[in-house]
Amino acid sequence: MLEKPRILDRKTVAQSRIFRVEALELEFANGALASYERLVGGEGGAVLVVPLIDTDTVLLIREYAAGRDAYELALPKGRIEANEDPLAAANRELMEETGHGARHLVHLTDFSVAPGYMTHLTQVILARDLYPQRMQGDEPEEIEVVPWALSRIDALVEREDFTEARSLAALYLTRDRLRDGRL
Amino acid sequence: MLEKPRILDRKTVAQSRIFRVEALELEFANGALASYERLVGGEGGAVLVVPLIDTDTVLLIREYAAGRDAYELALPKGRIEANEDPLAAANRELMEETGHGARHLVHLTDFSVAPGYMTHLTQVILARDLYPQRMQGDEPEEIEVVPWALSRIDALVEREDFTEARSLAALYLTRDRLRDGRL
């Protein structure tokens, strides 16, 4: 077990409506000093939903992604609200973004997006036994729902409008576990 | 083809040594107005390296991740420096973090980490024909190198110290392409 660096100092150095940046002064076990900055996320983290409509088909959504200034295909996702259960958050996002609820939801794993400089964790939730159920979210326009076959992940990787590593990792993981009879 | 929202206004609302936060005022094609914030990364983006030492084994590194305040296993990665070629950046990071250079480097794909609120793209680079070659980076302590079999990705997902979605997606992608004879 490696000995973690000691945090000598920690302070907020920038803050906006959504983002908070924290500066850390660290002392490593070998005595080396280093300064880091990291983004501190909300307490609850986020959920990424893998909505399975049959044993080879998931629902993707096409939505405007302001970071990339482009429409991107990805799995449904969103923040867990204060005191919200992660599975309930996954079902809410699913209803808001795809117009489906799920009778069965199960936690698969947790992903970090950039562990070096973000505290953020995303819980990956598999959703099955879907039924039509829409909930109004805060989306500024209608979201397009795109069914995609897990046997065609390769073709997804080739698309310029599919880039998100969390979605891709979750799709591979789901496909492998289904193949191995583990789901 | 969806019509992208018009950017009505864009300004920097927070800035630290490393991070810059931009606020966007958008008008969607349907007339809806929305405010977003996003993190603006450096121009060059980043590289993630898949160092292959035989047809089933990659090199992972174990490094302190300040975002998670934990030691994490992941693929080697780092920023592309100004005017640096992405393949050269990948080879430099590989030398700094694993003590190996690569005779063959090839671009596999590009990943976004959070396209909704980060501009950031990561180029995934496969590195083969490795040879011992160390370069001194700015790491505060020695980095442990951990060979890992692609046939054991499942076991990696189960580990608490392996969470990074980009690394996982890149490992699945590499394994699939090797299996299919596409690499």
UniProtKB/TrEMBL annotation, chains A, B:
GO molecular function: bis(5'-nucleosyl)-tetraphosphatase (asymmetrical) activity
Domain spans labelled Nudix hydrolase: 42-173
Hydrolase among keywords: yes
Keyword list, A-Z: Hydrolase
GO biological process: AMP biosynthetic process; ATP biosynthetic process
Cross-referenced InterPro entries: NUDIX_hydrolase-like_dom_sf, NUDIX_hydrolase_CS, NUDIX_hydrolase_dom, Nudix_hydrolase_domain
Gene3D superfamilies given in the database record: Nucleoside Triphosphate Pyrophosphohydrolase
Domain of life: Bacteria
Cofactor needs: Mg(2+)
Keyword Hydrolase carried by entry: yes
Species whose genome carries this gene: Acidihalobacter prosperus
Residue intervals passing through the bilayer: none
Protein name: ADP compounds hydrolase NudE
